[in-house]
Amino acid sequence: MSESLTDSQIEATELAAEATELAAEELELAAEELELVPQVLEAPAPVEKMQVARWYAVQVASSCEKKVKATLEQRAVTLGVDNRILEIEIPQTPGMKLKKDGSRQSTEEKVFPGYVLVRMVLDEDTMMAVRSTPNVINFVGAEERRATAKARGHIKPRPLSRTEVDRIFKRAAEKKAVVKVDLAEGDQILVTAGPFKDFQGEVIEVSGERNKLKALLSIFGRETPVELEFSQISKQS
Fold first, then answer.
1. From the candidate CATH numbers 3.40.50.620, 3.30.230.10, 3.20.20.70, 3.30.70.940, the one assigned to the domain spanning 54-177
2. Side by side, which strands form the sheet with 54-60?
3. Mind telling me which residue stretches traverse the membrane in this protein (predicted)?
4. Which helix (H) or strand (E) is 156 found in, with range?
5. 3-state DSSP of 176-228
6. pTM for this one?
7. What angle is formed at CA 144 by the lines to CA 138 and CA 146, rounded to 5 degrees?
């Protein structure tokens, strides 16, 4: 009886061992299957790089500042970069032109002839939009070369500092109005106002910044140099 019981115990033990081994194999297979299943993980949301608009100086063909400004404003809309090309400025100060008849005509004098200022977010698209605009020569103040699909071999512009921008616009605001005159040394003039009214003379010096000129007037039979305001004379034909 004890021998038969021992055999039963042995058989039960063997069955338990087999069951354990099968369970282990099943667990191993399940683990392998899990390893074969690709795990899809959500990629972290890309961190959007903050785009900052800066001022850049752009050199343009002579006397083409207004044409470049108008064309670039239109092209920015057409090319879909008007949300990155934000402002185009031509720093100017009021001026005056003295006509031959002595009358004055209001004008706008450019602070930096041959340049426009563009406030924009710098990237390949905005650089291409500016550089490909007719009458644009190039950006000013390059600091390194940049080879890209759209701007290969071009030079990366250097943005103007806040100090430079403030100085430019302050200069435009404070610059005195300059009177442009169609006068040169040797021209004959007639004094139309002031103590020398109706005197005739010859121009010997023109100072547009001071809105004045010097002329030789015949006073008491002698050629005398006299300083006159532009508003006091008219040019003789």
1. 3.30.70.940
2. 85-89, 115-120, 54-60, 136-139
3. none
4. strand 154-156
5. CCEEEECCCCCCEEEECCCCCCCCEEEEEEEECCCCEEEEEEEECCEEEEEEE
6. 0.54
7. 75
